[in-house]
Write a structure and sequence with these properties.
binds fe (ii) ion; Purple Acid Phosphatase, chain A, domain 2; Immunoglobulin-like; 15% helix; alpha+beta; ten-stranded mixed sheet
Length: 512
């Protein structure tokens, strides 16, 4: 435990964390339980006057009985300095067994555009120190430095990319989906670099176990303690390629009651992520789409492309297109979320309209022959009418500076989004920065995609692991494609393999 704390402390530039008298990490404190802060701390969803502070009490997170089954008071402090001399806000929250003893504090009345430090105390134990910040005031023209990450299959490798990300000077990390993976270890025919358990989670207790395994990772803890996150989910937080209230055909363990499984998965997700009260699930439903404003520089519209979508067309997965594929009635967002997004896009007064979400919006024709249409039925490529409605709305209303951020496919990519992505001369109306995985897909390689000729609007692609860094001001959006050359062994260096930019008021990606 001491080494984990010193790792966190070192990254924060804190040589010795303040330990209150009587606190002994290895002992059972006054609460009658051992150090409960094994999963670290995190923060999320910054507003100009508030940010969510998160931890979960779990002395042995893989043992559901390691906390007493009663509500436990948790003191919290938010300070201007990392030695907690200038405390800005403090209070007591309750960690309740119904929510896995997770703690989600939403302090109010904070200063806009400020960095803060925070920590928790429970049962005589003190947590590691986290660093977080508030958003700028709505009228401020502050730049936004944002990272994006996705797809962190524990079994596929080490979170070296998070270790490097923790060194970046970013304000916010948007997480685009696949926080956990559900397949049992023994199903990974390529083998496992790090086992996450040879079971497929179905129940709340099983999802908690899976989430706890991921949260125990020291590199994930490092990045989580360093910046606020803006998380959304994709499919693997529940089960591969789920859609609405359906799982895909042919699962080896068909789910007996999908609504109950979705409810368990949603609750465990909420318990392990720094989300607001508005995101607490009600059974199998949870409001995950939401907005976040970064002054006059950017509005962020975070989507949920899983919960309200119609079933995948043509039997799902990568398929030649079939009749139902372009049915205009098929929806990706569901009617309410689609209306919400279009209304937000039309009324935003920020320079950039960013849409962090799960599955790529840029078309990726999977066949080398441009005449063949073989598409992923799980991404926006499988919902072409829904995609077209959004892009035509942007074009017709002349909404400028729209940048989509996507995950899911475990490739770094950049697409110009046009009204006809089969036409090499079509004018861009928006851009899609696709973020590769943290680990999923293992090391990858440098050979280029064979489908470049079939995808004339595709500006960049690379099958490597890493994350995106976006430097956004009122003139320019610059995305840097960060890469680690390997994840199956620890210690990879960080490389920047590409930089692509958008200029405000001028659609179309440019090399930078
Ligand atoms: Fe993934």
């Amino acid at each position: 435990m001491a080494s984990r704390r010193s790792v966190l402390g070192g990254a924060l530039g804190v040589s010795s964390l303040v330990v209150l008298p009587g606190t002994a990490a290895a002992s059972r404190g006054g609460g009658g339980f051992a150090d409960p802060f094994t999963l670290g701390v995190a923060s999320g969803d910054p507003l100009p006057d508030s940010v969510v502070l998160w931890t979960r009490l779990a002395p042995d997170p893989l043992d559901p009985g390691s906390m007493p089954s009663r509500a436990v008071p948790v003191g919290w402090q938010l300070a201007h300095d990392e030695s907690f001399r200038r405390v800005a806000a403090a209070g007591t929250a309750w960690a309740r067994p119904e929510l896995g003893h997770s703690v989600h504090v939403e302090p109010r009345g904070l200063d806009p555009d400020r960095w803060y430090f925070f920590r928790f105390r429970a049962g005589g134990h003190l947590s590691p120190v986290g660093r977080t910040r508030t958003a700028p005031a709505p009228w401020a023209a502050r730049p936004l430095r944002m990272a994006a990450t996705s797809c962190q299959s524990y079994t596929d490798g080490y979170y070296t990319a998070y270790r490097h990300l923790a060194e970046e000077d970013v304000d916010l990390v948007a997480f685009l989906g696949d926080w956990i993976y559900e397949d049992p270890d023994s199903w990974f025919t390529r083998g496992v670099v790090r086992p996450h358990g040879d079971f497929e989670p179905m129940t709340l207790e099983e999802y908690r176990h899976r989430h706890a395994t991921y949260r125990l990772d020291p590199d994930l803890q490092l990045a989580s303690a360093r910046f606020p996150f803006l998380p959304t989910w994709d499919d693997h937080e529940v089960v591969n390629n789920w859609a609405g209230m359906l799982e895909p055909p042919g699962r080896p363990n068909p789910t007996p009651d999908f609504a109950a499984r979705r409810a368990a998965a949603f609750q465990a997700y909420y318990e392990h992520l720094p989300l607001r009260r508005a995101q607490i699930p009600a059974g199998p439903d949870a409001l995950m789409y939401r907005g976040l404003r970064w002054g006059r520089t950017a509005d962020l519209f975070l989507l949920d492309t899983r919960q309200y979508r119609d079933d995948q067309a043509c039997g799902d997965f990568n398929k030649p297109v079939c009749d139902e594929w372009d049915d205009p009635d098929r929806s990706m967002l569901g009617p309410a979320q689609e209306r919400w997004l279009l209304n937000k896009l039309a009324t935003s007064t920020a320079t950039w309209k960013a849409i962090p979400q799960q599955v790529p919006m840029g078309q990726w024709e999977l066949d080398n022959d441009p005449a063949v249409r073989r598409r992923s039925m799980d991404t926006w490529d499988g919902y072409p009418a829904a995609r077209q409605r959004i892009l035509e709305f942007i074009a017709e209303r002349d909404i400028d500076n729209v940048a989509v951020l996507s995950g899911d496919v475990h490739w770094h990519m950049a697409h110009d989004l046009t009204l006809n992505m089969e036409d090499p001369d079509a004018a861009p109306v928006a851009a899609d920065f696709v973020c590769t995985s943290i680990t999923s897909g293992r090391d990858g390689g440098d050979s280029p995609s064979g489908t470049l000729a079939s995808n004339p609007h595709l500006r960049y692609s690379l099958n490597r692991r890493g994350y995106l860094r976006c430097d956004i001001d009122r003139e320019t959006w610059l995305t840097s494609y960060r890469v680690v050359p390997y994840v199956t062994t620890p210690g990879a260096p960080l490389e920047t393999r590409a930089r692509l930019a958008l200029e405000a008021g001028r659609p179309g990606l440019q090399q930078a």
